[in-house]
Write a structure and sequence with these properties.
Blueprint (H helix, E strand, L loop, with lengths): L1 H36 L6 E8 L1 H4 L19 E10 L5 H11 L4 E6 L4 E7 L2 E2 L8 E6 L18 E7 L14
Parallel strand pairs: 1-7
Antiparallel strand pairs: 1-2, 3-4, 4-5, 6-7
């Protein structure tokens, strides 16, 4: 009877060892897959900022009094901030991750026409909050890209600026006061 007990104990021990080895291998593969999915580390660094100084200088254009407290007097929602990105990340990824990490409210939706993310609001400030021609736009290296923010892939050294404009028809390249 002690022989049978010894055999059962050895089988249980062997089974436990096999289970542990399988779990370790699966965990290692999962980690390796995660590293590959995230681009294997940083591909570069960009700088991102979020600005609504055009509106802060024209507060009489504000359509909703309830959002006045969300607009900084200097218009700076996010001062220029470095962001390390992985290969394949976009301007949208940079904005989303930065806002999430810094607890800045942001809302977006999928634009079915352009097949890109559309940024509806940042810092509780939305399109048309300062009139029919107001809203968020973005610039990369002081130029307005001709693709949606989730289509523009980041390049090392890019300067990304999200700018809230009161009247997009008067906005200059690079954002700012729009005058």
């Amino acid at each position: 009877m002690s022989q049978q007990l010894l055999k059962k104990t050895k089988k249980k021990r062997a089974r436990s060892i096999i289970i542990i080895v399988v779990l370790v291998v699966l965990a290692a593969l999962g980690f390796a897959g995660l590293v590959v999915k995230q681009g294997g580390g940083s591909a570069g660094t960009v700088t991102i900022s979020v600005d609504c100084s055009d509106l802060s200088q024209q507060m009489d254009q504000l359509q909703k009094e309830s959002i006045r407290d969300y607009i900084p007097s200097d218009g700076v929602i996010l001062a220029p901030t470095p962001y390390k990105f992985a290969e394949g990340e976009t301007v949208y990824d940079c904005l989303y991750n930065t806002c999430r990490d810094r607890d800045i409210q942001m809302e977006s939706s999928e634009d079915s026409v352009y097949r890109s993310r559309y940024v509806e609001g940042i810092g509780h400030l939305y399109e048309m909050d300062a009139g029919k021609r107001s809203g968020w736009t973005y610039y990369v290296n002081d130029e307005m890209p001709d693709v949606g923010c989730s289509k523009y892939e980041l390049k090392d050294g890019d300067q990304i600026r999200w700018v809230y404009v009161v009247d997009y028809t008067k906005s200059e390249a690079g954002g700012g006061s729009g005058k």
